[in-house]
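My main concern about presentation is that the manuscript never shows what a single data entry looks like. In essence, backbone conformation is discretised, so a fold becomes a row of integers matching the chain in length. An entry of this sort, consisting of the sequence and the corresponding backbone structure tokens, reads as follows:
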Amino acid sequence: MNDNMIELSHVSKSFQNRSVLRDLTYSVRRGEILGFLGPNGSGKTTTIRLMNGVIRPDGGEIRIGGFDPIHDGDQIRRISGILTESAGFYQNMTGLQNLRFFADLYGVQDLKRPAELLEEFGLADAATKKVGTYSTGMKKRLGLAKALLHDPDILFLDEPTNGLDPEGIRMVLQQIAELNRRRGTTIILCSHLLQQLEVVCQRYVFLLGGAVIEEGTLAALEAKYNPTITLEVETDLTLAGGQYRGLPARRVDAGRLSFQLHSRDEVPAFLRALAQDANLYSASQVNQDLESLYFQIREAVKNG
């Protein structure tokens, strides 16, 4: 059996002679949460629309759960849920009425499902209020509830945290991680807010100008683009000669030192040694987040 739930091969798309996607090739394994990352205008939303059969590619091949979006759009929609910037709700209907309406369209047999999802996403108190009165964050959470009504095998989430406050962002990301853990749902998560995705995504595809510029796990990408580790440590260690145990070191401020390690694997042994020589209060890696890595990748691509 093919382990890939989603496959795109040499896909291209243009609008009015403007190329939006160029030779797009990548795959998503069953049960994987993939971060599909890139700046606004890089082609993320166009790719989502292609995978759902809303628009047709100019070239290339797409398979979603073994189906072709051009010919098998209905089958793909039965096994997938989608959240986009415009969730398409009826503004004069309540949140509960909207979910019941779409549950009927999806053929959902469990009549309790709409109310349960409203409760799950913190919208139970607003269930009988018209969606037109909802805030942006409430509509986003309602959109995610709609996407989950029919318990899909695949989720396409396009900027799912836009418009949410920190509590809402945390709630949505926890729901995504829990859904994947509990049901093995395959999830494509499109976003330009990279720092939010590190806690949920297992692998990343970086998109720029309609083309894939890099892909891989965070650990693999760090090893490729930024193998050395800058570690800032709060300690009372006395530093002399700009080195400590043969490693480059410098003083950041009165209570913090910065050390250069050759790799992530050296961190545990280094901290154990430091704790033997001085008091160790805290330690953190510098510039090792997904956003910093993304800009390193872009710079590498720019420089050829």
